[in-house]
Specification:
Elements: E1 13-28, E2 35-55, E3 58-77, E4 80-89, E5 93-101, H1 108-111, E6 119-127, E7 147-158, E8 161-172, E9 175-178, E10 182-186, E11 189-201, E12 204-215, E13 218-220, E14 223-224, E15 229-241, E16 246-257, E17 261-276
Antiparallel strand pairs: 1-2, 1-17, 2-3, 3-4, 3-5, 5-6, 6-7, 7-8, 8-11, 9-10, 10-13, 11-12, 12-15, 13-14, 15-16, 16-17
Length: 278
């Protein structure tokens, strides 16, 4: 969940973010698999950087995120209790975004005097297959495939309140070395987000978040799995300024409904440092 993902920022803004997230809960699998009652606890650490700039009078940004994950899993395999432990670098993520409708690209001194207005933005997220991956393991940190998410988002200020929505879909390339030489494919996965919140002052805001996933059925060697996703998650995000250039972000989310994939409760804490080029 990404509240304020399409809110406007001045050009020449740089962010460095350190993030920790803990997820725990059940992983829902294809019922035909000989694995039941799969439970996971995942600790994820990441560092990210973003930079905003102007393109033809519009504000744009680029961002990159490098994660590291530590996971422990337990479950029954053919009636026998098993456990697994994974630790390694995850797949690196990149994002390019541009504000299509809203205020023009502004320097920080002009941005501070502007009146907030409706913004319409678009983005493309890319996940590269850079994470730890072993084809002899059914569970890995990395996915050994590319993933792309085009998305469009709208942010509407209402005085001190704001409402935001976004719609996109993940597209996946095949993993041609899935579990000892098999080929794994995944259908597109549409994603919808809705956020609403209140801003007390710049940097201090609270948002309620809802996201919905549908689709994303997987296939192995052309045979479809019974793992069509229909998942709803909800949560809260709180941003708090802690110094002139520092802020912290706390978030919590939980599954409301899930038919496949992870049904997790997640807590995260992010520490963010911001500076301007000029």
């Amino acid at each position: 969940m990404e509240p304020r993902a399409y809110s406007d920022v001045p050009i020449g803004t740089n962010f460095v973010v350190l993030n920790y997230a803990r997820s725990s809960g059940q992983v829902l699998l294809d019922p035909s698999l000989p694995v039941t009652d799969l439970q996971a606890k995942i600790n994820a650490y990441s560092i990210g950087y973003s930079h905003s700039f102007g393109i033809a009078g519009h504000t744009a940004s680029i961002a990159a995120l490098a994660p590291y994950a530590v996971a422990s899993l337990t479950g029954d395999v053919g009636g026998t209790a098993r456990q697994a432990y994974r630790s390694g670098m995850g797949d690196v993520r990149f994002r390019f975004a541009v504000i299509l409708l809203g205020s023009s690209a502004l320097l920080p001194r002009d941005f501070a005097r502007r009146t907030p207005t409706t913004t319409l933005g678009a983005s493309l997220s890319v996940v590269a297959p850079t994470g730890q991956y072993w084809p002899t393991r059914l569970i890995n940190v990395g996915a050994n495939r590319w993933a792309f998410k085009p998305e469009i988002g709208l942010s509407q200020p209402l005085g001190d309140w704001f409402v935001e929505g976004a719609a996109g879909f993940w597209i996946f390339t095949d993993n041609n070395d899935f579990y000892v030489g098999r080929r794994s494919s995944q259908a597109p996965l549409p994603v919808f987000q809705l956020h609403g919140g209140y801003t007390w002052r710049p940097g201090l805001w609270l948002a309620a978040d809802v996201t919905y996933y549908t689709g994303g059925r997987t296939s192995v060697n052309g045979i479809e799995d019974q793992d069509l996703q229909r998942s709803v998650r909800y949560g809260l995000t709180l941003s708090v300024p802690i110094a002139s250039q520092w802020s912290a972000k706390f978030s919590w989310s939980k599954g409301l409904m899930a038919t496949a994939g992870g049904d997790f409760r997640t807590y995260s804490l992010a520490l963010q440092y911001r500076w301007f080029n000029r």
